[in-house]
Design brief:
Layout: E1 2-3, E2 6-8, E3 11-13, E4 18-22, E5 29-34, H1 38-57, H2 60-76, H3 78-89, H4 93-116, E6 122-124, E7 128-136, E8 139-143, H5 149-162, E9 166-170, H6 177-189, E10 196-198, H7 203-212, E11 218-222, H8 225-235, E12 241-245, E13 250-254, H9 260-272, E14 282-288, H10 292-304, H11 324-339, E15 343-346, E16 366-369, H12 376-379, E17 386-392, H13 395-402, E18 407-408, E19 411-414, H14 418-426, E20 434-435, E21 450-451, E22 454-455, H15 460-466, E23 468-476
Parallel strand pairs: 1-5, 8-9, 8-11, 9-10, 11-12, 13-14, 13-19, 14-17, 16-17, 19-20
Antiparallel strand pairs: 2-3, 4-5, 6-7, 7-23, 12-22, 15-16, 18-21
Helix pairs in contact: 2-4, 2-6, 3-4, 4-5, 9-10
Bound molecules: nicotinamide-adenine-dinucleotide.
């Protein structure tokens, strides 16, 4: 069993109370993590406050070199990141290696390179020059979810520290292992103490204490929309800088001119990657009625072929869901779908697996049809391996159906014509839309949602802007 400690002021520290961390693929207890409270948050804030001036006095170039060191050390531990992430979340090791481990390294490398390439803006007037300088905001409070644990934590820590802020971070209590690995890496490379502090515990205690702490000037939160609302209620009246990356119910639009054999693997990947637990997953699939009869059997056959099982096996397409409670929630939506008149075309139940996975939180990839696009199943975020299929009559009709939810995170359009696909994409009310692909990420582009999917953008210059205060110095010619 792994004993995890907080990482505060360059030291690993335990607490009196602990929380058990469970491997959802087997039900085994794998680790214990501190059940911290506002006292530990206060210690972390004190450490971050003390480290602030020295850290922000370093040049941007010096700070980028620290990011390079962290990236190198993380890269040397890629295999370990993948196996810990799989153990903690239940996701396949192959996926954790290809996505979680590699993106975590890439996040540090990317923000180091991107910040090095940053040149301050200047605006000339007839008689004066305006210099725009980016100053650190202060102490950044970073709160992350369980679905992509290190991927999302590193996505926030890297730009926060490169811009000269110090950090108090809280990973999800369900998936603390790789945040602890990052703390070890930060310790090993010798990052000045207090620059990054990691406090483990529950959202209602540690998360809430971070959000309400008066010395924390900025909150970057990724998680559910309900929690995001609570975070905003606390942080907004304190005028903190706030970025909220929240839930989604993303549409996948399949136009009639598509080559089905080419498109279906991508459409299925977008529905079921990480057991459907990616905020960007396309869980509402709108299909032109002209190709509906060909699409449905081909898609269902493809999904039936996806293998659910041992996360360590390279043959597994899907592993376990993150927890038993979460699987219960996803199953409750499958029951709701049936009550709402939906027909389960495949999946809908736990697969039969050999020990030690026979009691794990697994669920077969599930395809539902026959529901209104306005039904609860088709409009509420399920965040699991469940997709609903809906026919549409025209491109306009597809756009209208796609835009009918309160969410506005992402979407994808699949078409034989990139022009037609792009025209439809432009009408989708979300922060991101892919055409003939999905989760194809360039870290320079804005990432974030509209409507109930959040506020603010991160990525590239948007992250540098969010994690800094833009200050204008206007110098009049003498
Ligand atoms: P969650 O909202 O339950 O928890 C997210 C984090 O917030 C956790 O660390 C949790 O401990 C903490 N938290 C809980 N209550 C808090 C409070 N009162 N104050 C401060 N922090 C608190 O979300 P989750 O179940 O961990 O993650 C799943 C959700 O995250 C889904 O809705 C998914 O769509 C969303 N998500 C969004 C993105 C995105 O980029 N938009 C990315 C990944 C996940």
């Amino acid at each position: 069993m792994i004993i995890i400690q907080n990482y505060i002021n360059g030291k690993f520290q335990s607490t009196d109370k602990n929380i058990e961390d469970i491997n959802p693929a087997t039900g085994e207890i794998i680790a214990s993590i501190p059940k911290s409270n506002s006292n530990e948050v206060q210690m972390a804030v004190d450490a971050a406050d003390k480290a602030r001036n020295t850290w922000s006095d370093l040049s941007l170039e010096e700070r980028t070199q620290w990011l390079d060191k962290i990236a190198d050390s993380l890269e040397s531990r890629s295999e370990q990141i993948a196996s810990l992430e799989s153990l903690d979340t239940g996701k396949p090791v192959s996926l954790a290696k290809a996505v979680d481990a590699s993106r975590s390294v890439a996040n540090f490398r990317f923000f180091a390179d991107f910040a090095r390439g940053y040149s301050p803006e200047k605006f000339e007037m007839d008689d004066a020059t305006n210099h725009v300088i980016l100053k650190p905001v202060g102490i950044a409070g970073l709160i992350t979810p369980w679905n992509l644990p290190l991927y999302l934590l590193s996505w926030k820590i890297a730009p926060a520290i490169v811009m000269g802020n110090t950090v108090v971070a809280k990973p999800s209590e369900l998936t603390p292992l790789t945040a602890n690995l990052l703390a070890e890496v930060i310790h090993d490379v010798g990052l000045p103490k207090g620059v990054v502090n990691i406090v483990h515990g529950l959202g209602s205690e540690v998360g809430q204490s971070i959000v309400e702490h008066p010395k924390i000037n900025l909150i970057s939160f990724t998680g559910g929309t309900m929690t995001g609302r609570k975070v905003a209620e606390t942080a907004a009246p304190m005028f903190k800088k706030l970025s909220l990356e929240l839930g989604g119910k993303n549409a996948t639009i399949v136009l009639d001119d598509i080559n089905l054999d080419e498109a279906i693997p991508g459409i299925a990947r977008s529905g079921f990657l990480n057991q459907g637990q990616v905020c960007l997953c396309g869980s509402r699939i709108f299909v032109s009625d002209k190709i509906w009869d060909q699409f449905v059997p081909k898609f269902v056959a493809y999904v039936k072929n996806m293998k659910v099982g041992d996360p360590a096996s390279p043959d597994s397409d899907l592993g376990a869901l993150v927890s038993f409670a979460h699987r219960d929630k996803v199953e409750s939506y499958i029951h709701l779908a049936q009550r709402e008149g939906g027909e389960i075309l495949c999946g809908g139940k736990a697969p039969k697996l050999e020990s030690p996975f026979d009691n794990g939180a697994f669920l077969e990839p599930t395809v539902v049809t026959g529901l209104s696009h306005l039904s609860r199943t088709a409009t509420e975020e399920i965040f699991g391996p469940v997709v609903t299929l809906h026919p549409f009559k025209s491109d306009e009709n597809a756009i209208e159906m796609a835009n009918c939810t309160d969410y506005g995170l992402a979407g994808s359009v699949w078409s034989g014509s990139t022009d037609r696909g792009t025209k439809v994409a432009e009408k989708i009310e979300t922060g991101m839309v892919w055409v003939n692909t999905w989760l194809h990420r360039d870290l320079r582009v804005p990432f974030g949602g509209i409507k109930d999917s959040g506020i603010g953008r991160e990525g590239g210059r948007w992250s540098l802007g969010f994690f800094s205060e833009a200050i204008n110095i206007c110098v009049k010619e003498s």
